[in-house]
């Protein structure tokens, strides 16, 4: 594919870049850090302050990933657009839960007289929040069966991570919560693999390539389709 596309005025402009690596890298890195907390790795634990995760959730896992999703809309890749934009919103909302300025936790503490009851209700609210994202991820996993083996495997791991997090939150099971952290680390590694594969595939002369294992030849938006969409947008 030629790296340049013609605009309506006869000027050559670079075609739009593939936004998938950005979205996948944003998801992978943020997932890795929060999962290290959940799993109790590198001297941190789930009970420790997660300020670093909040910052990543806003700027990389949130804004950068959502931006990748919006660009996928321009390419006509509905699945990638829905996934990146939704999980970008997930990280932004997750960060908001822990930012005092939003007052989410304080709303429960001030609205319920008993502090123990307030903590219980807030915990159940978080568990329901995770359950909703588990259902969404399961739906996206079904959709991923029309993309590639590597991406489908990633969504299966994300679903398992959310299931464990939901069970751990509902039952206050520390062991299940920690297991979710280990699965989350594996999820991040698989997401990094997908991101690197997309990144290398986007280069004209990559040093090497990584197989993704196509499940369908007609479902995903391929490089030629991206180029055609990019050319139409530039005109």
UniProtKB/TrEMBL annotation:
One of its GO terms (molecular function) is acetate transmembrane transporter activity. Keywords: Membrane, Transmembrane, Transmembrane helix. It is found in: Membrane. Pfam families: Gpr1_Fun34_YaaH (PF01184). InterPro entries: AceTr, Gpr1/Fun34/SatP-like, GPR1_FUN34_YAAH. The chain crosses the membrane at residues 21-44, 50-71, 78-102, 122-142, 149-167, 179-196. One of its GO terms (cellular component) is plasma membrane. Belongs to the acetate uptake transporter (AceTr) (TC 2.A.96) family. PANTHER family: ACCUMULATION OF DYADS PROTEIN 2-RELATED (PTHR31123:SF1). This is Uncharacterized protein.
């Amino acid at each position: 594919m030629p790296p340049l596309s013609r605009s309506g005025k006869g000027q050559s402009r670079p075609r739009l870049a593939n936004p998938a690596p950005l979205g996948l890298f944003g998801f992978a890195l943020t997932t890795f850090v929060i999962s290290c907390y959940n799993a109790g790795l590198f001297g941190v634990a789930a009970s420790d302050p997660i300020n670093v995760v909040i910052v990543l959730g806003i700027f990389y896992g949130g804004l950068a990933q959502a931006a990748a999703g919006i660009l996928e809309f321009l390419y006509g890749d509905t699945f990638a657009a829905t996934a990146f934009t939704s999980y970008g919103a997930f990280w932004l909302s997750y960060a908001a839960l822990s930012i005092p300025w939003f007052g989410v936790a304080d709303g429960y503490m001030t609205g319920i007289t008993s502090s123990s009851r307030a903590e219980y209700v807030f915990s159940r609210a978080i568990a329901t929040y995770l359950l909703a994202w588990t259902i969404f991820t399961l739906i996206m996993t079904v959709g991923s069966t029309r993309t590639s083996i590597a991406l489908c495997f990633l969504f299966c791991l994300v679903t398992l991570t959310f299931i464990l997090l939901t069970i751990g939150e509902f039952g206050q099971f520390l062991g299940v919560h920690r297991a979710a952290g280990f699965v989350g680390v594996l999820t991040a590694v698989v997401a990094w693999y997908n991101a690197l594969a997309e990144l290398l595939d986007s280069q004209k002369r990559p040093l090497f390539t990584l197989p993704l294992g196509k499940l369908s030849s007609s479902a995903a938006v391929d490089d030629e389709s991206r180029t055609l969409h990019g050319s139409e947008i530039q005109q």
